[in-house]
Specification:
This protein is of the alpha+beta class. It folds into four domains: about 60 residues, Arc Repressor Mutant, subunit A (Orthogonal Bundle), CATH 1.10.10; about 50 residues, no CATH class; about 160 residues, no CATH class; about 100 residues, no CATH class. It is about 35% helix and about 20% strand. The strands form three sheets. Strands 3, 4, 5, 6, 7 and 8 form a six-stranded mixed sheet that branches. Strands 10-11-9-12 form a four-stranded antiparallel sheet. Strands 1-2 form a two-stranded antiparallel sheet. α1 crosses α3, α2 crosses α3 and α12 crosses α13. The radius of gyration is 29 Å and the shape is elongated. About 15% of the residues have low confidence.
């Protein structure tokens, strides 16, 4: 905390004490000149603290009668929840603020807690470690995050100045549908009309896919909370092999007409908040498509990101089981009709209905194929590779290695 900030807080403490204080008295107690006292009083007024200036020979400053800073009364469990929220947000959650802001917030909470509880929370903070690595993603501007959240809640259009990974800067007006926290980053899902893009470089448009070819992240996991602000948890290393963190860019494509209930003249774009240079909330309003889900839209866009390989499979198993190994941000799943499911008829179909299994069409895109055979082996379900042919060779090679290891009398390199 800077010296000036500490003195502004000290002035607030003095004013909360009692009555009116003259400027010379305040200057003496704070160790500053009278002009600085007036500036500090102005800072408090800017923060919404009702500091009243009293004119006259015995004038000075006082707080409006009845005003008191509300005490922070937390139970042990509530204090633990707040501290763990700050710590986990800093280490594993989406980037929201600078580390300094997190530390400052924790310090302020600690100062108003009872000393025994503060000491216990300090012990927890100093002895707690996290297995998930912090994301180096720069946090978005606080104004950007809060302004977009408010615009999405009240359904006001916003004009964005956005720079993609190719350093192309565009300015467009969009309809903010919702925010999504995913793998350490914040994303905006927004409706975009057919035109109105201005700025240097190419407009943010290109390949097809719901939600746009959103920038791939380090981890893709199951959906967390769903709403105007959604959260997607990170899980597993599958996405690390599917594509690198900066190989695709959001805001690249429109949602196909008819999907997600989007009007025919409006597509969906996904924007990374840390790449928004400026925004202005515009007058007017819009209507969010019925049953629109920002989280599902983002994950579907991630799964459709145009990596080097497009993979198509049929797997005989339940969607729930397949999703444990291929999360929503990696693959799209759809039931296979009975005509295309293969040779299972009669008793086979009845067994499928009894166990809740079926043939499921699995589509995914990946920068490399070498990680997919081990995932198929972990599925432990019948599957058919439709394409690419190279994946079949990799699966055969893995099967050969597994067979050799399973039938070998001893390892090729015995331990010393």
């Amino acid at each position: 905390m800077t010296t000036s900030t500490a003195r502004v807080l000290a002035l607030l403490e003095i004013l909360q004490g009692s009555g009116r204080h003259t400027v010379p008295d305040l200057a003496a107690r704070l160790g500053v000149d009278e002009r600085t006292v007036r500036r500090y009083a102005g800072h408090l007024q800017d923060l919404g603290v009702p500091v009243e200036s009293v004119r006259g020979r015995y004038g000075g400053y006082r707080l409006l009668p009845g005003y008191r800073m509300p005490p922070l009364m937390l139970t042990d469990e509530e204090a633990l929840a707040v501290l763990l929220g700050l710590l986990s947000g800093r280490n594993t959650g989406p980037a929201t603020t600078s580390p300094a802001a997190t530390e400052s917030a924790a310090a302020k909470i600690r100062r108003v807690l009872p000393k025994p509880l503060a000491r216990r929370l300090d012990a927890l903070r100093e002895t707690t470690g996290f297995t998930t690595r912090p994301h180096p993603t720069p946090p978005p501007e606080t104004h950007t995050l809060l302004a977009l959240a408010e615009a999405a809640r009240h359904q006001h259009p916003v004009t964005l100045t956005y720079t993609d990974r190719n350093a192309h800067t565009t300015t467009r007006t969009v309809h903010p549908y919702g925010l999504v926290a995913h793998s350490g980053r914040w994303y905006l899902t927004a409706g975009v009309g057919g035109g109105g893009v201005t700025g240097g470089g190419a407009a943010a448009g290109g390949s097809s896919g719901a939600g746009g070819a959103a920038e791939a992240a380090d981890h893709v996991g199951p959906v967390g909370s769903v709403g105007s602000v959604g959260s997607v948890g990170g899980a597993g290393s599958v996405a690390d092999s599917a594509g690198s963190a900066d190989s695709a860019d959001p805001a690249d494509s429109a949602d196909p007409v008819g999907e997600s209930g989007v009007p025919a003249d409006e597509g969906i774009r996904t924007f990374r908040l840390d790449r928004i240079a400026a925004l202005t909330v515009q007058p007017g309003s819009f209507t969010v498509p019925p049953n629109f889900d920002p989280v599902t839209t983002l994950l579907d866009g991630l799964a459709r990101t145009p990596w080097a390989h497009e993979v198509s499979l049929r797997v005989h198993g339940s969607v729930e089981h397949i999703r444990k190994h291929l999360p929503a941000g990696i693959a799209t799943l759809s039931p296979v009709t009975s005509e295309g499911a293969g040779a299972r008829t009669g008793a086979g179909r009845e067994a499928d209905a009894a166990t809740g299994t079926e043939w499921v069409h699995v589509r995914l895109r990946a920068e490399r194929l070498d990680w997919i055979p081990s995932v198929l082996a972990a599925l432990d379900r019948p599957f058919v590779i439709e394409h690419p042919t190279a994946l079949r060779d990799l699966v055969r090679a893995l099967a050969h290695r597994l067979h050799e290891n399973a039938t070998a009398d001893e390892p090729p390199h015995p331990p010393m």
